[in-house]
Design goal:
The protein has eight helices and four strands; from the N terminus they run H-H-H-H-H-H-E-H-E-E-E-H. It is an alpha+beta fold and about 190 residues long. The chain has two domains: about 100 residues, Orthogonal Bundle (Peroxidase, domain 1); about 70 residues, Glutaredoxin (3-Layer(aba) Sandwich). Helix 7 links the parallel strand 1 and strand 2. It is elongated and about 70 Å long.
Length: about 190
């Protein structure tokens, strides 16, 4: 999901408040939970996006659901989003927030895509090499995909390191299709 500039501004404010009040980890966790709920529940997503439902009704809903379950900072933030008609941007704001927190904490999120689950020793070796290469704490997320046949793909932001068998087979196919065979060298038995 691409994060727009408005979401970055809200995320930046949240991170700044979290750092000032020393509640950044708590805010990150609470916004993640709310973001996950909104992303997974189409009825809630439609409720928040509906122009026919008043801001007061939406605030009352947030108050009933989240008051007492999340911090006052998060409740106030949700009310601010409702006032500015930005409540549907919560998943984007969370994504922008995690990017900023990762910068603050010198973390790097890495996706490891393989055909089969990777053993702990191999994961630790990959994490160690990437940590040394990028001089950051590595947060590894594994993804199993049957279409890559074998090997691994590592995604770090926009950087993709593709060591998959699927890529190799595609390269061989393209090379064969693009190669020219000289007629005097081609024969049949």
């Amino acid at each position: 999901m691409a994060v727009n500039e408005v979401s970055r501004v809200y995320a930046s404010s949240l991170v700044e408040i979290g750092q000032e009040k020393n509640v950044l980890d708590q805010l990150e966790e609470e916004i993640k939970i709310i973001s996950d709920i909104i992303s997974e529940d189409n009825d809630l997503k439609n409720f928040l996006a509906s122009p026919g439902i008043t801001k007061k009704s939406k605030k009352d809903f947030f108050g009933k659901v989240f008051s007492g379950n999340v911090s006052e900072f998060t409740v106030n933030f949700l009310n601010l989003l409702l006032e500015n008609d930005r409540q549907t941007a919560i998943p984007e704001i969370y994504e922008a927030m995690t990017e900023l927190i990762d910068e603050v904490n010198n973390r790097l999120r890495v996706s490891l895509i393989t055909r089969y689950e990777v053993d702990e020793a191999s994961k630790n070796a990959i994490i160690e090499k990437l940590a040394k290469r990028f001089n950051k704490e590595i947060i590894l997320r594994e993804e199993i995909r049957e279409d890559i046949l074998g090997g691994i793909i590592i995604k770090i932001g926009d950087l993709v390191i593709d060591g998959s068998l699927l890529k190799d087979l595609k390269n061989i196919r393209n090379n064969l299709l693009n190669s020219k065979v000289r007629s005097e060298m081609a024969y049949e038995d």
